[in-house]
Specification:
The protein has one domain (2-117). Helices cover 0% and strands 52% of the residues. The chain has strands spanning 2-5, 15-18, 20-21, 26-34, 40-48, 52-53, 55-62, 66-72, 78-83, 101-104, 107-109, 115-117.
């Protein structure tokens, strides 16, 4: 899988990356992440391309690290928002103007990462 994201309203910098996909992916609405504060948080996730698009959770082989899971979105990457529980993902109103939401080009997760399927 090749990812090529041009600078856009969601992401300021271009991103290019290649991944070795090892199986089929599926749509997700939430992912359980460590946001750097030592705690795990549920985050709603959506792809972005001039608005929300389905985020995909795909098994990959990460060179040197072994199996992993790749979360990808639309042509403009991903948008994320912290939520209290995975069933709240559908309540998020996605907006580039919402300061509580943030963008990522993609996420690489361990295979055991909890997700909420679409």
């Amino acid at each position: 899988m090749y990812i090529d994201i041009e600078p856009n309203d969601n992401l300021d910098e271009a991103v290019m990356a290649t991944f070795n996909v090892t199986g089929p992916g599926h749509a997700i609405t939430a992912v359980h992440l460590d946001l750097g504060d030592g705690q795990w948080h549920w985050c709603a996730v959506t792809g972005w391309k001039d608005g929300p698009a389905a985020a995909q959770y795909t098994p990959i082989e990460e060179s040197g690290d072994g199996p992993a899971r790749l979360v990808t979105g639309g042509d403009h990457g991903l948008r994320l928002a912290r939520i209290a529980a995975p069933d709240q993902a559908g309540q998020v109103v996605w907006s580039l103007a919402d300061a509580t939401q943030w963008a990522e080009p993609f996420l690489i997760c361990v295979p055991e990462t909890k997700v909420q399927t679409a």
